[in-house]
Hints:
The chain is α/β, with parallel strands linked by helices. It has helices spanning about 5-20, 35-40, 55-65, 85-100, 110-125, 140-155, 180-190, 210-225, 245-255, 310-320, 350-360, 360-385, 410-430, 455-475; strands spanning about 75, 135, 170-175, 200, 230-235, 260-265, 290, 305-310, 390, 400-405, 430-440, 440-445. Strands 2-8-7-6-5-3-4 form a 7-stranded mixed β-sheet, with helices on both faces. It has a 5-stranded mixed β-sheet with strand order 1-11-12-10-9, covered by helices on one side.
Amino acid sequence: MTPEAFRLAGHQLIDWIADYRDSIDQRPVRAQVEPGQVRSKLPQSPPGQCDAFDRVIADLEGIVVPGITQVQHPMHFGWFPSNASLASILGDIASSGLGTLGISWESCPALTEVEEITVDWMRQLTGLSEAWKGTIHDTASTACLTALIAARERASNFCLNDSGLQGLSSPLVVYASGEAHSAVEEAALLAGCGRENLRIIAVDPISRSMQADALAGAVELDLAEGRTPAAIVASIGSTGVTAFDPLDKIIGIAQKHGIWVHVDAAMAGTAMLLPECRHLWEGVEGADSISWNPHKWMGTILDTSLFYVRDPQHLIRVMSTNPSYLQSDVDEQVVQYRDWGIPLGRRFRALKLWFHLRLDGVDAIRARIRRDLENAAWLAAQIQAGENWQLLAPLTLQTVCVRHDPGNLDGDELDRHTLRWVGQINQSGAAFMSPAKLDGRWMVRVSVGVESTERHHLEALWSLMQETADKGQTSR
Ligand SMILES: Cc1ncc(COP(=O)(O)O)c(C=O)c1O
């Protein structure tokens, strides 16, 4: 494709995206396809000849779009907000258009230095001290794995330099609450700790926060039995009910025994843009690493996951490879982000954040987050006042956990009732919410925070929930 052809197609594509985003609320929220339906519409062998751009756009509209669950739709309340602000999309296009190669400072000095600055802007905007240095990973899962590998090497005095974990006489133990994201378990297993050495710490039955006493007890027991506590992952805004572990207490326990603390604030990190929310991670300065995803609620398009450490030299010592072909005579003066994580090559991800912050502005982003908090509080109040409706967990940010309980159903019947009414709404395409289990019983999570969701969307959702659940009750 020549630059001139690119210009023509690019204008057409931008127009198409703008129209698509402008009219997204006319579409069903949930993808309207059966398994295999998208695949069946695509040719089974690759094209030999080039195709016309109009035909590609037609297939985007006719084949791809029906196969998308519209997480940018204002009636999307599923999983978590996964906002893709148009400002950050421009940054993504700029990143792709520049076609840079991020394997060393030398291969693209601007990539490294824009990342250093934007990550530091985010540090300032969330009230973290200058002690933190950061980078951008693809996801919080990668960040958590990186943190646990760094923790493993600190606890084992760099076992990777000799026999690795296989040479250790004392197993390394990782601690997290039962509310922690599955990425934590995955990271602990991939870091080599083994399921037997992953301690799931009990949570408070109401707040779902990790019980600090139970953590202290588990650590003491492991020490007494000859194991080495290596890392604690604190969930700051858990996925299920947005629970907050007591970070200051956790850090007190960790510091007594030299245990690494990783803070997983993947979704809730966005709230730390608001000074009034920062009490929720009180004590964070005592942690060793933090990750959170601007690609969730804040709205910098995937994949933009911030990862901060207090001791970059330790991380570099663990992650650095430094083959001769990548060495240069400025190595002592510059940051080499390949030494901060697993991949060598990296995209110019910082442009997404840079564009987002510059074009939308922090004041507007903060105002939107406050709006979402108010909208979630409004819905929670309706539920608390509603007949037969229960708010199942304290509302800390924007995730409203709800059940409709007509009072005449046993446990299994109530589960079927819950799945029926939420399933009907999701299938209708009018709105989308996530059913999830709490204490072994189904509930519904309403995750508020899509960029275009306003109060009237919450009002429409609440009416829909009442109508559907009431109808389900009579037709049981
Ligand atoms: C608390 C928490 N941690 C980790 C993750 C995983 O995030 P990612 O998809 O960036 O790996 C999520 C995603 O929902 C999350 O809510």
